[in-house]
Amino acid sequence: MFYYLFQYLESQYQLPGSGLFQFLTFRSALAGTISIMLTLVIGTRVITWLKKFQIKEVVRDLGLDGQKSKEGTPTMGGIIIILATIIPVLLMAKLHNIYIIILMVTILWMGFIGGLDDYLKVKRNNKKGVKGSIKIAGQVALGLFVGTIFYFHPEITVRSYADYQPQQEIQFDESLNEKATITTIPFVKNNQFDYKSLISWMGQDAHQYTYLIFVPIIFFILAAVSNGANLTDGLDGLAVGTSVIVLVALGIFIWVSGNLQFADYLNIMYIPNIGEMTIFLSAFLGALIGFLWFNSYPANVFMGDIGSLTVGAVISVITVLVRKELILPLLCGVFFVQTSSVLLQVGYFKYTKARTGIGKRIFKMAPLHHHFQKSGLHESKITIRFWIFGIICAILSIITLKLR
Questions:
Q1: Which H or E run contains 194?
Q2: Residue 170, SS3?
Q3: Residue 172 in contact with residue 264, Cβ under 8 Å?
Q4: Residues 310/259, Cβ–Cβ less than 8 Å
Q5: What is the pLDDT of residues 184-209, one digit of tens each?
Q6: Rounded CA gap, 279 and 261, in Å?
Q7: Given its phi and psi angles, is residue 90 left (phi above 0), alpha (psi -120 to 50 degrees) or beta?
Q8: pTM as predicted
């Protein structure tokens, strides 16, 4: 809103300083600052409100050290993250930008699904929360929305690095941009992959139906990352801190991909209009950093499914929009390891039970952070070591801009 207001004031009255709101860097910095301040201001009030209405964590006895001390800690703190993201975005972003619209729908929709899940668990004493089928249906709906808009909307375009000519002046001509389903393959020379190649074997005109493969892939990515973030949210500050690291790396990807000079220098695809996403990302990053103030050990509030599912969904959608989804197993290495530990544990247990009649386990407990708790490590040490692992993954992901 401020963008449109100051644009009007500058054009009509030449108000001094109003031109600052035309600069993406200024609006991004302001959005992040407002978000952090909002989180710190409303955080205490929301926590008090959650306590008043008895929205508290119900802890299952898993035999973990310090587990009982978490009993009664307010949950659904993800409300703080959502509010502290939406308000700065409404104030600072170009609200007609298609990327901003997609991200706003994502955060509101997944916030609704996660909030309903938390409500049923806490207020209705339903330990399972929302039925798995309903939760998946909600993720499918969001996947269909994001995939369909991404595929068909005329403003979501790309300019391949193959279009850049050596010794030629960089051109901002929008006619050079094109609709395409290309993405980036990390660590590979000429690292562009087109999804239409997956269906090209069906005939010359088969590329018209690429969306039949593309949209389900988007849903799978969204579900995998959002559930990975949900599994990681088991220790104070673990999921939030890990997400902050991932988002910083994504911010770099957005910045270089949305700037024609940087894209030309790095020889990567240029994505028009995507720079506006830095406003949303700055606000979201600020909200998570502010929330970490309350969620660090010992946590005053948990973000609940309304937070973890939303955070994972936003990360996955940003990654898809910036066309870096194939790098997700590395970029979201912590989420990937946590999810893999659960799948391996369950799969090996069922396999050994079918073979011998006695189920065996690979880890002392899954997800993996509980295995380290069972091994005697304090949860703060586990959290910080996962953060370090996440930083290494983020650095390796950024390196893929040149190492290929």
A1: strand 192-194
A2: coil
A3: no
A4: no
A5: 988 887 778 889 888 877 877 777 88
A6: 20
A7: alpha
A8: 0.93
